[in-house]
Design a protein that fits this description.
The protein is built from one helix and ten strands. By secondary structure, the protein is mainly beta.
Length: 137
């Protein structure tokens, strides 16, 4: 649940609530680990069926049949919204979900990440507003 830089959650112009930097963050720095509960893939599938639309906060791991339910004991990193032109990236390894800055992030700037493939299968309209926006998540 550790954060290496102070962040706050606030209303986002992209979607709902976002995560914002409270200080300038240099490029290529670890922001911290996303909080949550490590669960089996089977349990993740069960929970997904019972979560309200828009409340999905599951991160699956590629090489293990597990997921991180970031809706449990969440921290500010779980509020990072998608952007087709992100300022952070996510790394999933060793049962952790870590976020790193891609470039310098200014104080007050919203943190964004390219979600890549999601359960939306390219059907959810993207509202990131980036010049290179793909149009869908």
């Amino acid at each position: 649940m550790s954060l290496n830089y102070p962040l706050k959650k606030a209303k986002s112009n992209i979607a709902g609530t976002g995560a914002y930097a409270l200080v300038n963050i240099p490029a290529k720095k670890k922001l911290g680990n996303m909080a949550g509960e490590i669960i089996s893939y089977k349990e993740a599938q069960r929970r997904v069926k019972h979560q309200p639309e828009g409340a999905l906060l599951m991160v699956e791991f590629d090489n293990e049949p597990i997921a991180l339910d970031a809706g449990v004991n969440r921290n500010e990193l779980s509020y990072i919204n998608h952007s087709c032109d992100p300022n952070t990236y996510m790394r999933r390894a060793y049962r952790k979900v870590e976020f790193y800055s891609l470039r310098k992030i200014r104080k007050g700037e919203e943190l964004t990440c390219d979600y890549g493939e999601t359960h939306h299968d390219g059907q959810l309209p993207c509202r990131c507003g980036a010049v290179n926006c793909r149009g869908y998540i």
